[in-house]
Design brief:
Layout: E1 9-14, H1 29-35, E2 43-45, E3 51-53, E4 56-63, E5 66-71, H2 85-95, H3 103-108, E6 111-116, E7 119-123, H4 131-135, H5 143-148, H6 164-167, E8 175-181, E9 185-190, E10 204-209, H7 213-222, E11 227-228, H8 233-240, E12 245-248, E13 251-260, E14 270-271, H9 282-290, H10 294-301, E15 306-308, H11 333-342, E16 349-356, H12 363-375, E17 379-386, H13 388-396, E18 402-408, H14 415-422, H15 441-452, H16 456-473, E19 476-483, E20 486-489, E21 492-493, E22 508-509
Parallel strand pairs: 1-10, 1-11, 16-17, 16-18
Antiparallel strand pairs: 2-3, 4-5, 5-7, 6-7, 8-9, 9-10, 11-20, 12-20, 13-18, 13-19, 14-16, 15-19, 21-22
Helix pairs in contact: 9-11, 14-15, 15-16
């Protein structure tokens, strides 16, 4: 892109699109990142993902179950209205709604009350050792704007609900949403009244969804766009030697895994010889796990841009880098066949694998590779790949027998995996992402205990015990943590964060 008039416009693309502009409806990284340019949280993250002041300037613990926060004075929402304690109380309560996918995090914050116009206090009913991590997950909305536009609760994305918050936004952040065309283009402009300091020079952001890898690559090389969040792994080597383009490397805090319906008595999408649901049998779950040649996926499909794992969390920090916990079941087709026979399925069964085709790196390709591997143990898999806009509501309804999913973000603690994914499905977001709907009371109790344990040594022991139990039961099949190489024009300077978060206020277009 030539310098001059356009030099402060960032034009970028990705294979997918944000789900909604409602900041509490969907807890999905791309959606959170896009909304995070408009909305802010009381505490933010710096370049190393450390917690720093945001809409709150300071805080102190006022007791073992309470925190008090001083709010940043002089902050205004994009419509000019002042930011106050009323907005914080409203937003936290809104985020607890049944239609919110951050309800588990908002609920863990306890009850929030207004002390004065610029002070709030959170009072919990039980200890929360990762309170700040949860707080960083709750975007602050304007109470007045929400009342005016009748968006007092998050929209129900799975039910295809549309509200004013679907396409409109009113935050306090560095950029103002100008227009939203789902699946096509989303534009932002710089907020001149932002309280923070811009470290970059981007005045305007134009985002285009470009689903096709080759088209996205061509647009970057030609200079039509300035930045690509997700170049295909097979294209990275070429990009490294392409004039005018550079690759920015970095790992991502994201684990890719396979989930299985373990609740229904029969397969919703498939057929088994005995008419039962094979995934309710631990031996079948183990067989599928041991039939996966993860090294071939890593080397051939991911071009070594992945780290195979046995632990269903985004970061090794969560399990204290315990190598024993991160030891996969061995790839062993003969053992897998024996397990299938032992479970009563010597001739396998048929099932559909639901998979996104524009969310994770090589998502559809991985599903196709898994189907071929499972065919060797006589499991016939039909890959049902679809865009994320269709895929996520489908899995949210648990309208699936076998599915691919990814989990990640800025938080490296085990808690934000345990409560949404490992726990039995309950209220206030507990077990919301247990889309296989398994019920494991022992695992549930162990995970719940780790949630409230504040003694570091005791909590470490509990966390490791939860991982061991989950691994033993194979409630999910972990695959790998994906690496995220970004690609940009040579005149674009960006900061690569491990949560795959593109912070526009840090970007410089020269």
């Amino acid at each position: 892109m030539a310098a001059g008039a356009q030099a402060q416009t960032l034009r970028w693309a990705s294979q997918g699109d944000p789900q909604t502009m409602d900041p509490h409806s969907q807890n999905e990284s791309m959606t959170n990142m896009m909304n995070g340019q408009v909305y802010e949280t009381l505490v933010l993250r710096d370049r190393q993902l450390e917690i720093v002041p945001g809409l709150a300037t300071s805080w102190q613990s006022t007791g073992p179950l309470s925190w008090r926060f001083k709010l940043r004075p002089g902050v205004k929402f994009h419509d000019g209205s002042p930011f106050t304690a009323d907005d914080v109380v409203f937003s936290v309560e809104r985020a607890k709604s049944p239609t919110s996918q951050v309800a588990a995090y908002a609920t863990a914050l306890g009850e929030v009350k207004k002390i004065d116009a610029m002070t709030v206090e959170f009072v919990m009913s039980k200890p929360n050792p990762v309170f700040m991590e949860h707080l960083n997950s709750i975007f602050i909305m304007s109470k007045g704007w929400s009342e005016k536009n009748k968006v007092l609760k998050p929209l129900s994305f799975k039910d295809k609900e549309e509200t004013h918050a679907s396409l409109n936004a009113n935050g306090t952040g560095p950029y103002v949403l100008v227009s939203r065309q789902p699946g096509v283009k989303t534009t932002y402009k710089r907020n001149p009244a932002w309280w923070g300091k811009f470290e970059g020079n981007v005045q305007e952001i134009v985002y285009n969804q470009i689903s096709n890898d080759a088209t996205r690559l061509a647009a970057l090389i030609s200079g039509e766009i300035d930045f690509v969040l997700d170049p295909a792994p097979r294209d990275v080597a070429r990009l490294r030697t392409t004039s005018g383009v550079k690759v920015i490397d970095g790992p991502e805090n994201r684990v890719i895994y396979i989930g299985m319906d373990q609740a229904r008595d029969t397969l919703l999408y498939g057929k088994s010889p005995d008419g039962k649901n094979p995934f309710k049998d631990l031996r079948v779950r183990k067989a599928l796990y041991q039939a996966i040649d993860i090294e071939t996926i890593k080397t051939k499909l991911m071009n070594n841009q992945s780290a195979p794992t046995a632990v269903l969390v985004p970061s090794p920090k969560a399990y204290y880098f315990d190598k024993e916990l991160d030891t996969r079941l061995p790839f062993d087709v003969s053992k897998a066949k024996a397990l299938m026979a032992e479970a009563g399925y010597p001739n396998g069964f048929e099932v559909t694998l639901d998979c996104p085709n524009n969310r994770y790196i090589n998502d559809e390709e991985i599903c196709i590779a898994l189907a071929a591997m499972w065919r060797k143990i006589d499991v016939t898999v039909r890959v049902n790949a679809m865009p994320r806009a269709t895929y996520f509501p489908k899995t949210e309804k648990m309208d699936t027998s076998l599915y691919m999913f990814g989990w990640g973000g800025a938080v490296t603690d085990a808690e934000t995996t345990f409560t949404p994914i490992y726990r039995n499905r309950g209220t206030n977001g507990v077990g919301e992402y247990n889309r296989g709907n398994y019920k494991d009371d022992k695992l549930d109790a162990m995970a719940a205990a780790s949630t409230v344990e504040t003694d570091p040594k005791k909590r470490e022991a509990l966390v490791k015990a939860v991982f061991r139990e989950h691994n033993a039961q194979v409630h999910h099949i972990p695959l790998h943590r994906q690496f995220i190489p970004w690609a940009a024009r040579s005149n674009v300077e960006v900061v690569h964060r491990a949560d795959n978060w593109l912070e526009a206020s840090w970007i410089t277009v020269k």
